[in-house]
Amino acid sequence: MIGEINPILRRRKLASELRRLREDLGINGVQVSRALHWSTSKLSRVETGQVAPSVKDVAKLLKHYQAEENSGLLLELAGNHTAKAWWEPYSDVLSETALEYIGLEDGARKIKAWNNNVLPGLLQTRPYATELARLYRAVELATPTQIERRTRARMRRQQLLTDDRLTYTAVVEEAALRRRFGEADVATMREQLRHLLKLSDLPNITIHVLLLEQAHPIDLSSFVHLEFPSMPLLGPISADVVYTEDYPALELIESEERVYRYFLLFDLLREAALDEEASRDRIASLAGL
Description:
It contains twelve helices and eight strands. By secondary structure, the protein is of the alpha/beta class. The chain folds into two domains: about 70 residues, Orthogonal Bundle (434 Repressor (Amino-terminal Domain)), CATH 1.10.260.40; about 200 residues, Endonuclease, Chain A, CATH 3.30.870. Helix 2 crosses helix 3, helix 4 packs antiparallel against helix 5 and helix 7 packs across helix 8. The relative contact order is 0.13.
């Protein structure tokens, strides 16, 4: 049994396995499409994870590839239709890339975040997140209802932090701890900093602070690195993914070489930052504790 996997990860894993089976046979997509009387675009959408194929279509592909090993798992994966993902109703206020990222984040088992400007979304209080959402009114039409829905989605994402199967590590620039946005006052920031301390008490959450007064190892914008669990016999659900956000551009990076560079960069930043205990002391000091 493969267990429950959210729709985005299920679609991605199935796509990568079907693509691997074709490539192992040394045949191209045009040959397969002709043999099955499919359009090449249909096979391409399946293999790139743009669409979730039906069990019937997966069975046709497996038969054509003469793939008996793990075929039962792949058919189960195709038919493993869980309930509608919680983030899908927010498609009216979040972009496709943002929704895809939330699905990936939801299924990750290790999250590493570097933030040099704002605090990580998973660690934000509602007042802090609301002020950030309001700022976008300067560059786009965002109604109070849309702002509330975006904030609500961010708060809902944070539920995954209570899953002790997840390991979350953040390296935060001290400037992000000090910076206020919009109408956020001293009380709002004090509440936010105390929230960070409370979260850092959880055994699966680690927060490191990179001090302003120290020499920084590299000039690098915020990013999140995601690692995923493995499935029996089929291996990792997904290769590692990096997410970057520089308004208005949101990017999911999946190139193995680029992702590995971010992996190395995160280690560089973490080594330069304060250790966990010293970071807590710095946050507590800024919070007036």
